Amino acid sequence: MKSPTLPVAVLVLLTFCSPDRNRQTPETGMGGATAGGLSSNDTMPTGGADSAAPAGDATPSPAGILSQLSVGNMAEIRLAGTMAKQATSPQVKQVARKLAADHAKNLEQLRALAQKLNLSLTSPAGGASPGTAALPADLQGKSGTELDRAFVQHEIDEHRANIEKIRSRMIPAAQNEQIKAYLQKTVTEMEGHLAALQRAQQQLGA
Fold this sequence. Notes:
Blueprint: H1 62-86, H2 90-116, H3 144-173, H4 177-204
């Protein structure tokens, strides 16, 4: 969570935000967006400025780690904010509001940590403007219950991917204890989001 669109990165989002799954990445990242996007959502971008590893097994820098999560959080906030208005299910509206609020709080904490450590946050080139609220590709053209279900599934996928990314790549790469603590807290929050999303999915009968 702590998504976000971050479908949003860490914390996926938050595109702590992320795997490229045919989705639009606003500033790319905890999603995704995602929340989102940890790309549209909780998903982390796969490139960008002084950001994380440009490719493969390269180790993300401290600024790169936080930049990816920053982008993911912003994407998740946009997507979740949009879905809080467009969703038809009360459960999905509630989950979307929580995602937007939690990722906004996580982004605040991230920025404060970056300032404290004197790290500059960067965004991948070609990202959408902060006001952009376009839906990820896998949600476009859907409405009503179909959109609700697609959003929930999108967020589940984004959160799982970003939790794994933070655990397997970012936490091992983080040598600064404050960054490591932030990442661990973010994973815990995102796990809470994942549980809430799975409950919503069951309620939707998806």
